[in-house]
Amino acid sequence: MDKSMTQQDQLTTVGQLPEITHATPSLPAALTRLVWLLCLASLGVLAARGWIDTVWTLGGVVTIDGLTVVMWTVVTFFSGIVHSYSRRYMAGQRHINRFFAAVFGFTLAVMVVVAADHLALFALAWVAMGLMMAELIGHLKGWPQAEAAAAVSRRYFLASGGLVTLALSALWWATGATTISGIVAAAETVPSAVWLVAVSALLLAAMIQSALVPFHTWLLASMTAPTPASALMHAGFVNAGGILLVRFAPVISVDPRFMQVILVVGAFSALMGKLLKSVQSDIKAQLGCSTVGQMGFMIMQVGLGYFAAAIAHLILHGCYKAYQFLSAGDGVEHTSPHEAKPKTRSLGAVGFVVTSLTAVAGGIMFAVLTGKGAAIDSGLLLTLLVVLTTMHATRNAIAQTSISARLRYGVIPVLFLPAIVVYAAVYMAVTLLMGGTLPAAAPIELTPTVGLIAVAFGVAYVAIETNAYQRNERLYVALLNATQPPTATTLTSTEEYNEY
Questions:
Q1: 117, 70, 76, 110: which is closest to 432 by C-alpha?
Q2: What is the CA radius of gyration of the chain?
Q3: CB 64 within 8 A of CB 115
């Protein structure tokens, strides 16, 4: 017998495959239909909010405003997709009912978080949201790495819940208000010492929830979660940090200096996320590091005073990241080790001109459509980042594609500009819906801090484009080490994994 054929026929299996004889449970189908009904109801409330332009309250317990209806629609839409996808992905698993119950419970917890007005309800929902996600991360019971990842995540989420409780308690003690709306109305009267404790706790809680550096290790450890849970986590759960800060925008913006602290924190994670992603080879780890950077950019927008922009960013990032995780299997390319990798094209003079013009056009379009960058304020930094992002995307497409030069230089740049139009449309819609209840934008002034961040992004862009950071072995190893999750959560042998 041919040796190669013999080797191909030797299939390796891990664990004994179960004989599935039980009937398909009805709970997954029922919860999937229910969550899509919630999505339709949310769309109805969203339309009513746009038509009536009012705020509905329920006895100081729940407030349904623009932010609430936007996030209800987004969360139930993503959850509906994850439910539908999971019915096939999780089919045959012994604990499929427990998985669907956790996903649906998580969805309800998030819906309560974005609607809660009473402080106790908000704190309880925040903690419940974290515990549900920890349950999804450790869904596969008996797998040591999954259980370790769930334990790590649970500690982080409980710490986040404790910080939120501390912040709410301090604000309640200072204002006497038992509702978020009451605290927001009395934000200016909070003593400075109490205010500093409260806003610092809110920022730390947001950093943990959004997996900002140095709290990103829980996210990198969570790769043991089933892919649908990872999609829900990266598309929805990590966004809660931005939602928290936007909900308390009138409180955190009392002192412009604290807004600059938020800006620096977000900018650091945005830069680090990009660098950490560049040293990763595992596709899910790359997506995790990308989320760290994107959440940093979202927090940056909060620090710049563009609250509606932060919500628009998390919506679009959620759509993109949900798709990336649910299609992650398509990104695994089975290539023989001896096959040569396709070479990256040199940009050349024409490519440089096309890339530069596309980037400038993107920045101008962004400024015209959104108004950010049209005045001498912090919006200029956002416009600069759009220019750098457009330049990076256009350069990569032109340099790596195999189509003809005419199409590369003529068609590809045009494809990136509509993305800016989509972002502007979402931003304007969110701004309109948030109007009257929360500040959509309160841009901070240009300061040396904003200038230094702009320079840092420019330097990082050049370093990444030229691979200069890879020439420093110490820096490269430091970045690689920073992407390593806790040892107990790392699968080192396939024999340790048996989902049955």
A1: 70
A2: 24
A3: yes
* Per-residue pLDDT at 96: 85
Residue 459: partners with Cβ closer than 8 Å, 6 or more residues away: none
Please list the ranges in the chain whose pLDDT falls under 70: 1-24, 328-351, 373-374, 396-416, 436-441, 465, 469-470, 491-500
Rounded CA-CA distance 306/310 in Å is 6
Cβ contacts of residue 138 below 8 Å, gap of 6+? 146, 147, 149, 150, 151, 153, 224, 225
Residue 391 near residue 355, CB atoms below 8 Å? yes
Question: Distance (Å, rounded) from C-alpha 404 to C-alpha 61?
Answer: 61
- Residue 80 has what pLDDT? 93
Rounded CA gap, 13 and 91, in Å? 19
Q: How is the chain split among helix, strand and coil, in percent rounded to 5?
A: 75, 0, 25
Q: How far apart are CA 98 and CA 112, in angstroms?
A: 21
Structure tokens at 375: 């005045």
Instruction: Specify the pLDDT at position 180.
Output: 92
CA 194 to chain centre: 30
Q: What pLDDT score does 331 carry?
A: 55
The Cα 476–Cα 279 span in angstroms is 7
User: Is the alpha carbon torsion for 427, 430, 436, 442 positive or negative?
Assistant: negative
Helix (H, G, I), strand (E, B) or coil at 275: helix
For position 9, what pLDDT does the model report?
44
Integer Cα distance of 176 and 169 in angstroms: 10
Instruction: Name residue 64's beta-bridge partners.
Output: 56
Q: Residue ranges per domain, the chain? A: 26-327, 348-446
97-151 pLDDT, tens digit each:
889 999 999 999 999 999 999 999 999 999 999 999 998 888 877 778 888 888 8
pLDDT for res 18: 46
Query: What one-character-per-residue DSSP string does 142-199 give?
Result: T-HHHHHHHHHHHHHHHHHHHHHHHHHHHHHHHH---BHHHHHHTGGGS-HHHHHHHH
The Cα 296–Cα 269 span in angstroms is: 5
CA–CA gap between residue 18 and residue 68 (Å, rounded):
44
Contacting residues for 254 by C-beta, under 8 A, at least 6 apart:
187, 188, 190, 195, 199
So what's the pLDDT on residue 248?
93
The torsion region of residue 346 among left (phi > 0), alpha (psi -120 to 50) and beta comes to: beta
Q: Is the pTM of this model over 0.90?
A: no
